[in-house]
Amino acid sequence: EIVMTQSPATLSVSPGERATLSCRAGQSVSSNLAWYQQKPGQAPRLLFYGASTRATGIPARFSGSGSGTEFTLTLSSLQSEDFAVYYCQQYNNWPFTFGQGTKLEIK
Amino acid sequence: EVQLVQSGAEVKKPGESLKISCKGSGYSFTRYWIGWVRQLPGKGLEWMGIINPGDSDTRYSPSFQGQVTFSADKSISTAYLQWSSLKASDTATYYCARLSAVAGEFDSWGQGTLVTVSS
Fold first, then answer.
1. A56, A61, B3, B83: least surrounded by Cβ within 10 Å?
2. Is A95 on the interface with B (CB under 8 A)?
3. In this complex, which of B62, B103, B109 lies closest to A91 when CB atoms are compared?
């Protein structure tokens, strides 16, 4: 099973600033990586697939990058609705696995 | 509009059985795998496995193999997750989600079903 490690566990950022979240795979997952956003009491929402392809309706201030074992989710000019928990998920190898999440909180 | 609607919250005792449901609408139900994801209280997401509603082919994550059973009734566009003997450690929110037709991401999610197991 591929272990996905996200860092940091918690990130404190002020509204309007930029946030960079990392996800590292225990072995190469090529570009077979997705990012999700989860707000309290809600189901997760797909943000990116293929490491960098935005899902429908995701604003351009969100960007995804990386391949192999290192991936990054960047949120530029944070809005109040962006504060949430973010998860990466690999789908290159069975079983598919999630990272443990990064909580993005207001500074 | 794609929708996955899950059954309501459940409170059960240890040793009891349970079957929760996930009804799809707004798309061809048999053309997409349905997955199940567990979220323990205050914790992250865990990938449980997937089922093909068209032929009921199933793939379980090793951590959940033998612990739960996936099934589906394509005539009513509904997938199920069941336990034969619940444990307190099964207390969690369970999400169903549609697996993308192109790759391995979940592109639509149900609202979640909270299962509480307590004596």
1. A56
2. yes
3. B103
Residue given tokens 């059985």 in the structure block: B17
pLDDT in 10s for each residue of chain B, 119 residues: 999 999 999 999 999 999 999 999 999 999 999 999 999 999 999 999 999 999 999 999 999 999 999 999 999 999 999 999 999 999 999 999 999 988 899 999 999 999 999 99
In this prediction, residue B101 carries a pLDDT of: 86
Distance, CA of A76 to chain centre: 13
Q: Which residues pair with A98 in a beta bridge?
A: A89
- Residue in A43, A91, A94 nearest the CB of B109: A43
Token look-up 């996955």 returns B4
In angstroms, rounded to a whole number, what is the distance separating the alpha carbons of residues B69 and B38?
14
Classify the C-alpha dihedral B63-B68-B73-B77 as positive or negative: negative
Instruction: Give the pLDDT confidence score for residue B53 in this predicted structure.
Output: 97
Reported in sequence order, the residue ranges of B17-118 that DSSP labels E, i.e. its strands, are: 18-25, 34-39, 45-51, 58-60, 69-73, 78-83, 92-99, 106-109, 113-117
Strand order in the sheet with B18-25: B3-6, B18-25, B78-83, B69-73
User: With left for phi above 0 and alpha for psi between -120 and 50, is residue A51 left, alpha or beta?
Assistant: left
Which one, of B97, B117, B111, lies nearest residue B7 by Cα? B111
Distance between CA B37 and CA B44 in Å, rounded? 10
Q: How many residues would you count in chain A?
A: 107
Q: Say if A45 is an interface residue toward chain B (CB within 8 Å).
A: yes
